[in-house]
Specification:
209 residues; mainly alpha; Arp2/3 complex 21 kDa subunit ARPC3; 78% helix; 0% strand; globular; DUF2232 domain-containing protein; DUF2232; transmembrane; transmembrane helix; membrane
């Protein structure tokens, strides 16, 4: 157990390190939680938490505490959470929904840390960009005659923040879905299958074969 846990911890850390320094592509994010989740599926809760802590300590030595924290929250936590859900055979919607909350918390933690280090309010910057996007969308609808000029007024800040939060949650929900899809295809071949996806996903995958 110890050897395999150490190996999978090193694998998760290496994926993060390679993705950060070589900028291979965002697709590698899909694999970040999978090694720790596999530890949970094979050896249980204690081994998974040990693997997550080992990843954090290893990355702290290799990359510094800041980048180590950005891996631990959310990806190491996601690995433990997904492993627990999959071992309990929870449906995809449940594990994806809980994972979305963890991933979104990680996003806002990263934004808070970057705002602290840069001395700028990145949340305000993000909401300003969302405001510009909403205004652009409204202007297009007016050009197409779907809205009147009176609808293009000052946008409420609360509305913009709600839209921004919805965008973050939607993005993380899609990310967790892709993690589930990758794990479903990969872990079955390793002898630790996760719960089957919804029927419509299986139908789509069968059509691609």
């Amino acid at each position: 157990m110890m050897v395999e846990t150490a190996f999978l911890s090193s694998t998760a850390s290496l994926l993060w390190l390679v993705s950060y320094y070589l900028s291979i592509g965002p697709w590698m994010r899909i694999l970040f939680p999978v090694p720790i989740a596999l530890v949970y599926l094979r050896w249980g809760n204690r081994a998974a938490w040990m693997s997550a802590v080992v990843c954090g300590l290893l990355l702290s030595v290799l990359m510094g505490p800041y980048l180590s924290l950005l891996f631990f929250v959310p990806y190491a936590l996601l690995g433990v959470q997904l492993g627990a859900m999959w071992r309990r055979r929870a449906p995809w919607l449940t594990s994806i929904s809980l994972g979305t909350l963890i991933a979104s918390f990680g996003f806002f933690l990263r934004m808070a840390l970057l705002s602290l280090f840069l001395g700028e309010d990145l949340w305000s910057y993000l909401t300003n960009r969302i405001t510009d996007l909403i205004q652009w969308g409204l202007s297009k609808l007016i050009d197409w005659g779907l809205l009147g000029l009176g609808d293009l007024g000052e946008i409420n800040l609360t509305t913009v923040q709600i839209v921004t939060l919805a965008v973050v949650l939607c993005s993380d929900f899609i990310y967790l879905f892709t993690v589930h899809l990758a794990a479903w295809l990969l872990l079955e071949r390793l002898g630790n299958p996760i719960p089957n996806p919804p029927r419509w996903v299986q139908v789509l995958m069968d059509e691609q074969k």
